[in-house]
Design goal:
Length: about 140
């Protein structure tokens, strides 16, 4: 659990530079509980956890890859596992995180709404994916 929480914290600090780092650090205890309750897809190699995707129902609460292993296809593999498991997925990504936004667009997600995150004061893009008939 500690490794997963550390990956979560470091990935959020890196990707969300526009949010006060203390927000993520203070939120960590709540995240530990959420992770314990979530359905996790974990990418592990040689006994080392390199990334994970957490689901709350069909909502992707987060997709995180440990920094040394980013840009190696791990996130795509984790997302692929979730797509093979569920016919529909939703998520939210901050507008100021264009790399993640583009990743999800490239993976077939479409924008469904833009909302203000009242906790952080940042705009978020809500996105959805649905399995197409030719993906069966």
């Amino acid at each position: 659990m500690r490794t997963i929480t550390n990956i979560w914290l470091e990935a959020n600090l890196d990707a969300h530079w526009f949010i006060d780092p203390e927000y993520w650090r203070n939120y960590s205890p709540e995240v530990q509980k959420a992770i314990a309750d979530a359905e996790l897809f974990i990418f592990e190699d040689c006994g080392e956890i390199k990334g994970f995707l957490g689901l709350d129902g069909q909502y992707i609460a987060g997709l995180f890859v440990n920094k040394p292993f980013r840009h190696q296809g791990i996130g795509r593999q984790l997302l692929g596992a979730a797509k093979r498991t569920y016919p529909e997925l939703t998520l939210s990504v901050y507008e100021k995180n264009p790399i993640a936004h583009q990743f999800y667009l490239d993976e077939g997600f479409r924008e469904t709404d833009r909302v203000l995150d009242n906790v952080t004061g940042e705009m978020a893009i809500e996105m959805a994916w649905q399995k197409s008939h030719n993906e069966d």
